[in-house]
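re: ur question from yesterday

yeah so i grabbed the chain u mentioned. its 319 aa long if i counted rite. heres the sequnce exactly as i have it in my notes:
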Amino acid sequence: MLALPFRPFPPTMSSGHQHSHAIQPTDAGHARALWFALGLTTTFLIAEVIGGLVTGSLALISDAAHMFTDSAALAISLVAIRISQRAADGKRTFGYHRFEILAAAFNALLLFGVAGYILYEAYRRWTQPAEVQSGWMLAIATLGLVVNLISMRLLSSGKDASLNVKGAYLEVWSDMLGSVGVIAAAAVIWFTGWVWVDSIIAVLIGLWVLPRTWVLLRDSLNILLEGVPADVDLEKIRLALTALPGVDSQHDLHVWALTSGKSSLTVHLVSTSADPIALTIAARDLLEEQFGLHHTTVQVEREPCEMASGDHRFTHAAA
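ran it thru and got these structure tokens back, copy pasting raw so excuse formatting
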């Protein structure tokens, strides 16, 4: 049996690819975007609270509460990035990258709370309509829409690379919908006096936000439970490894993600004929080139180890 750690450590086993766990430039870019978005959102939050109190608009105060969750989510995301950049230590050998996923899951739960609050407010306003100064309501909501669009633009580049940034993006995105809803409601009230439209718009916003919030929570939980990343086809990897020259079988194949974009793989390959070192390098090259997996641990064995007996996915190469 020959067990080889992942590529960066033994110079004789490396095929020239280096893996760094240092802070990536994209992390700094995400932080800058979050800082700008936080500044814009918090500034408008204060303005919206003042505007709601001056005009007596419950809609604006409600939207300000939604803006508060945006500010909280952005602040949490910044804290998460800061903590995730801490170096690995004796207690946390993988570092603190997983904290970013915890923040994303918390943001998803926060979004569920906001959606529930919107639905509750819609019901309350339906049973107890409030007088609204639609002119000021329209002006302030329009300004809020501009702020949200700017924040979304700042966060859009990082939402697909980081679940943490995606959570903040969805918070701002949902509040953008809130601003559009308030604008629509204000316009209708301005021209018709139908104050009940405000409740209908609020319900539509809540129902629109919920499915996207579930996607964020699902993706976060999948990483926390060390599930196979959504962009990884485990069966294709299994077949590709089994098809390598000299591989008799494989077992104990695991693929998981530490955080967004940081997937890892471990596998045991059984071979009675291939050179273990050459087979290890071939397997790593295959995983990197075909599947984009850079952080891998390949163990080559002359015969299946005791872990194979508990692997229900034990696969034999075709004769």
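noticed a couple things. Confidence is low (pLDDT under 50) at residues 1-26, 312-319. also Strands lie at 2-3, 249-257, 263-270, 295-301, 315-316.
anyway ttyl
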